[in-house]
Amino acid sequence: MNYIGEECFSCGKKFEKDDDVVVCPECGTPYHRECYKEAGECINHQLHESGGSWKRTEKKSDDNVSSGEESIEGEVVTACPRCGFKNEAGEKYCRRCGLPLQSGSYEGQNQRTNYNSGSSGGADALNQFLGFNPNEDLGGASLQEVSQFVGSNTIYYIPIFKRMKETGSKISFNAVCLLFPYFYFANRRMWLPAIITALITVLLNIPLLLSALTVQSSPFPFMQDIINYVYANESFIVSLSEICNFGDWILKIFSCIFANRIYYRFTLNSIDKMKKRSHGAVTPRMLKEKGGAKPVNILIIGLIIFAAMAAAYFLVMFILLFMQQSGLM
């Protein structure tokens, strides 16, 4: 135990850093070793008679130092309860980990618990929230809640979401969506845009399915007639394929530019629904379960696309067969 500043029961002098301190084994009263030797015994007889034990002197707080602050060599500082960093008096947030320091600036102990969960120190918290205030409102949800919902790759998303909130910007760049927008949306649990982009992609690839018929042959007469029909209109189908390919690139560029905005709105809407269902109380576990990335969804959307392509192929064949039997081709 540190006895610096306490008084020796024998001589009354305060203990200093390098003093040799001994305590009574029965009541715990501290002495300078020389004072104890000189007395020959513990002289705190009143404590021995009452059967009590020595207690540390309660330090009187400076009237000019508010709760949570301490004075170090005449300078008032605020110690962060999260990471222990000594902040200047009057600081609203810890300069190391971003934790609110002033009363009323933090919304309850439950939110403090959420902030501390999953982080082993101030440096971890700094990395988690990138030095931003975790209580900052990002449009209906705090930065902390958004970070916990996003889960992985917050170093990419949080600055983008923060900029969108502050400037109203809707445009950013998402490289994954430039190639596979449906995979990105599915991985981030956004099933509506994932299915929409997947189905549009399938429709835009129907002319390629027709082009594939021109390099095939069939032993069935009705199939051969269909193949001959497609071959006879090959130039039209090729032109249509080029137009659809252009449309496919427009879809990918649109997704690339607005995917982060879509994810930003999806995140806020998801958190808002969770709060309504739980009457305003959401936990990091709830946010983690409903948010983050889910790679298995990539496989699911891939199977959906494969099934849709197969369905589109047979649908085209059925339409051409109907046209043939109806004498339309």
Topology record:
Layout: E1 21-23, E2 30-32, H1 33-39, H2 45-50, E3 69-72, E4 75-79, E5 86-88, H3 108-116, H4 122-129, H5 143-150, H6 154-167, H7 181-187, H8 191-204, H9 206-213, H10 221-232, H11 234-277, H12 284-290, H13 296-325
Antiparallel strand pairs: 1-2, 3-4, 4-5
Helix pairs in contact: 5-6, 5-12, 7-8, 7-13, 8-11, 8-13, 9-11, 10-13
Strand content: 5-15%
How do the SSEs run, as a string of H and E?
A: EEHHEEEHHHHHHHHHHH
Termini Cα gap: 98 Å
Structural class comes to mainly alpha
Give an overview of the whole structure:
The protein has helices spanning 33-39, 45-50, 108-116, 122-129, 143-150, 154-167, 181-187, 191-204, 206-213, 221-232, 234-277, 284-290, 296-325; strands at residues 21-23, 30-32, 69-72, 75-79, 86-88. It has a 3-stranded antiparallel beta sheet with strand order 3-4-5, with no helix packed on it. Strands 1-2 form a two-stranded antiparallel sheet. The longest helix is centred in the C-terminal third of the chain and has 44 residues, at 234-277. 22% of the residues are buried. Helix content is 53%, strand content 5%. The chain contains 13 helices and 5 strands. Mean pLDDT is 77; it is low at 60-74 and 103-127. A hairpin with a 2-residue loop joins β3 and β4.
